[in-house]
Design goal:
single chain, 451 residues, alpha+beta, NADH Oxidase, Nonspecific Lipid-transfer Protein, Chain A, 3 domains, five-stranded mixed beta sheet, four-stranded antiparallel beta sheet, 13 strands, 40% helix, globular, 4Fe-4S ferredoxin, iron-sulfur binding domain protein
């Protein structure tokens, strides 16, 4: 083998470097870059500098996966609206997945094009979280595309928590490409929100995840719409494990549910609803039918979604359970687990705002001090007041109740592997204050198994 300095590849590179000395990095022309992105298949694009304050919470994550990042290229790819609006969710899911695949291909082609001009680039996944080693204690994605898209001037987030593009509405997929080069002109948020606050997303959502007052229940949406994704799959597999026989399993899971899960596993995960996207009339290209005849729009688009006979998946004791029974008597409620089970105290605290049931907290006003000991030491304050929850580091304010727990025991209790009475008797969990307040806390977080 040739010595390193005489290796053909090493000699070639050094000759190239001598004949073509590297010049200082020049910012990419934003107009030319925009044309490149549109030619690659994007329908709109904007550029955001890495140190934009509005995405500061993503800096560390982005630089960890791609340290030379200087610019984020945010782009959108349009969906076929009618395919998403149909009550036949098989058609809607086909459109979702086809557009996600297209957006991933756009991002991949951009990275290849950048490589040819000497620009380093990286394209994280467009649609689905893939950092499963962090699930469920931390976010399982590298980039939050929505805030980047907002900063790139591609729209604003509506009350349904989807980005609404001023022209294309919410019928879009979002993608982000990281590059190691600055551009000549960066984009900024548009000066209005395309959301017209028609509340049709509120009316269409089968689990009441979107409140008319702008509130949002992550757990309700996650449990039903993403039933055949991560958490629902976990719950399904545990149902199999807990079944005594095939006949016992069939009592718990219908044939259509088993077939649907097989379809999601063999093809791609199916959303159960996403009716909020289907019903949204916002956007210049989208709004005409709604403004021309609102009653006809509701009859043709919203009512078929509301009237559809289907199974709705909810956590027992959740706001969603009560909502479905009250608003959609034509739909069948099935009580399930969300599949979310924290693996750490950090995960427990991180998940509280996501799992909070605001209507179950009606009339509750209390400060909870948590002290966790053992393998994971942590102190935290949880305040529940005015149907809102706040989680803070350390012990703040005067507690109405204090809970001290061995961290492993507490996690075992949440996972239904430890008995609360046993833990209290063994002093693995100690409570100072009214146990009724602990029961009230558990009612606000039914997924957490605190009863």
């Amino acid at each position: 083998m040739a010595k390193f300095d005489n290796h053909p590849t090493v000699r070639w590179w050094r000759e190239q470097s001598t004949n073509n000395p590297k010049t200082s990095t020049v910012a990419l022309n934003s107009d030319s870059l925009r044309t490149l992105c549109l030619d690659a298949g994007a329908d709109d694009v904007g550029f955001v500098e890495i140190y934009r304050p509005a995405i500061a919470d993503q800096h560390a994550e982005i630089l960890a996966v791609f340290p030379p990042t200087k610019t984020l290229i945010s782009f959108v790819c349009c969906m076929n609206r009618e395919s998403v609006r149909t009550p036949a969710r098989s058609i809607a899911n086909l459109e979702f997945h086809a557009n996600y695949d297209h957006a991933d291909e756009v991002a991949r082609n951009l990275v290849k094009a950048f490589a040819q001009i000497g620009v380093r680039a990286l394209n994280p996944s467009v649609a689905f979280p893939m950092e499963m080693d962090r699930y469920p204690d931390k976010k399982a994605w590298i980039i939050s595309h929505k805030p980047v898209a907002v900063e790139a001037g591609l729209g604003h987030i509506g009350i349904h928590r989807n980005v609404i593009h001023p022209k294309f509405g919410n019928f879009i997929a979002l993608g982000t490409v990281l590059i190691d080069t600055e551009v000549t002109e960066y984009a900024h948020p548009i000066n209005y929100n395309p959301c017209i606050e028609c509340k049709l997303c509120v009316a269409a959502c089968p689990v009441g995840a979107i409140g008319a007052d702008g509130s949002f229940s992550f757990s309700a949406c996650y449990t039903h719409n993403y039933r055949e994704f991560m958490g629902g799959f976990t719950d399904w597999t545990e149902t199999i494990a807990d079944s005594k026989s095939a006949s016992d399993y069939r009592k718990k899971v219908s044939a259509s549910e088993s077939a649907s899960m097989w379809q999601s596993l063999s093809f791609k995960p199916n959303y159960k609803a996403a009716y909020c996207i289907a019903a949204c009339p916002a956007g210049e290209d989208v709004i005409a039918p709604f403004l021309s005849d609102r009653k006809a729009f509701i009859k043709d688009v919203v009512k078929p979604l509301q009237d559809k006979t289907e199974t709705i998946y909810v956590v027992p004791g959740s706001d969603a359970e009560n909502y479905v029974v009250k608003h959609f008597p034509n739909k069948t409620v099935k009580l399930v687990s969300s599949g979310i089970r924290p693996q750490s105290i950090q995960g427990f605290l991180f998940g509280l705002p996501l799992l909070f049931q605001r209507n179950q907290s009606e009339g509750l006003s209390a400060i909870y001090h948590f002290t966790f000991t053992g393998s994971e030491s942590r102190r935290a304050t949880v305040t529940i007041q005015n149907k809102m929850v706040r989680v803070q580091e350390g012990h703040l304010g005067k507690a109405n109740i204090s809970v001290t727990a061995d961290s492993k025991t507490w996690l075992g209790f949440l996972g239904k592997e430890q008995n609360l009475i046993w833990a209290l008797l063994r002093c693995k969990i100690r409570v100072s204050g009214s146990l009724k307040l602990l029961q009230a806390f558990g009612k606000c977080f039914p997924t957490c198994n605190i009863h």
